[in-house]
Design a protein that fits this description.
Largest sheet of chain A: none
Largest sheet of chain B: none
Largest interface: A-B, 28 and 41 residues
Number of domains of chain A: 1
Order of helices and strands of chain A: HH
Strand content of chain B: under 5%
Mean pLDDT of chain B: 90
Distance between the termini of chain A: 34 Å
Order of helices and strands of chain B: HHHHH
Strand content of chain A: under 5%
Radius of gyration of chain B: 19 Å
Helix content of chain A: 55-70%
Shape of chain A: elongated
Radius of gyration of chain A: 16 Å
Number of helices of chain B: 5
Number of domains of chain B: 1
Oligomer: heterodimer
Low-confidence stretches of chain B: none
Distance between the termini of chain B: 72 Å
Mean pLDDT of chain A: 92
Number of strands of chain B: 0
């Protein structure tokens, strides 16, 4: 997944450089969606969910 | 007379805008280069959230680069701001994950000036969002303005910085592919080199 994020981001930067703006924006949007998905997957714990019980408030 | 002064002030505003955005791109490129030096020279492999923060910084650069390639637009500013906010969210969450020492959770990597990487990322994201806000307050919008001429100093700087960002993005892509393969990323070693 991380490799896919960096692949789409690099492709967006390259395609944007060569002037294909709409394709570049599509690629960067895909990269952002993948990154948000991976972020949520990384921080989700089977035990706590998204909570952070180690922080006492 | 007033028209001439107004035109010169407008040109000055464009130049200041170019310098400001180039400066922002240079700072992000410098931060990403420093992260790569820590990785390749000191063997500090980035964690998954650290890699997401790098990706967010490349996303910020995407918006900045588009200005110098395809013309200035508020939409480009929007892309950069979106990735700045994403950087802030990831960095805050990672800081909160490790803020209370417990088994399996501690700040990884070397502290720089007493701060670890996710805390620095909060500083960087806040600085980026503040910089965009300051740009809008002081310089204003440049929507529709053409990029600087390619043969001008600022135009050349824009091209050099953009190509540099593309180059380090490609290096990072290769590095991530070797570190993570097609699976999860670990800080214990490069998955494809084991």
């Amino acid at each position: 997944m991380m490799a896919a994020i960096f692949a789409t981001l690099s492709a967006a930067l390259l395609v944007g450089w060569f002037g294909k703006r709409s394709i570049a924006i599509l690629l960067v949007a895909i990269a952002l969606v993948l990154a948000v998905h991976l972020f949520l997957w990384e921080i989700h714990s089977p035990e706590y969910g998204f909570r952070m019980p180690w922080i006492q408030t | 007379m007033n028209a001439i002064v107004g035109k010169r002030l407008e040109t000055l505003r464009y130049v200041f805008n170019d310098i400001f955005l180039l400066g922002m791109m240079a700072v992000i490129a410098g931060i990403l280069t420093a992260a790569m030096v820590m990785q390749y020279a000191y063997g500090e492999l980035p964690c998954p959230l650290c890699l997401l923060q790098r990706a967010a910084m490349f996303g910020v650069c995407f918006g900045l680069m588009q200005n110098f390639r395809n013309g200035f637009s508020d939409r480009n500013l929007g892309y950069s701001l979106l990735f700045s906010v994403f950087l802030l969210i990831v960095a805050v969450r990672q800081t909160l994950l490790d803020i209370y020492p417990r088994p399996g959770h501690a700040y990884i990597g070397t502290a720089v000036l007493g701060l670890h990487m996710p805390v620095w990322s909060i500083v960087i994201a806040t600085a980026l969002i503040t910089a965009f806000a300051l740009k809008l307050c002081v310089i204003g919008t440049e929507d529709g303005a053409r990029p600087p001429a390619r043969k001008s100093l600022l135009g050349r700087l824009g091209i050099i910085l953009s190509l540099y960002v593309i180059a380090i993005a490609l290096i990072n892509f290769g590095s991530v592919a070797v570190q993570c393969g097609l699976g999860e990323c670990h800080t214990t070693g490069y998955a494809l080199l084991k």
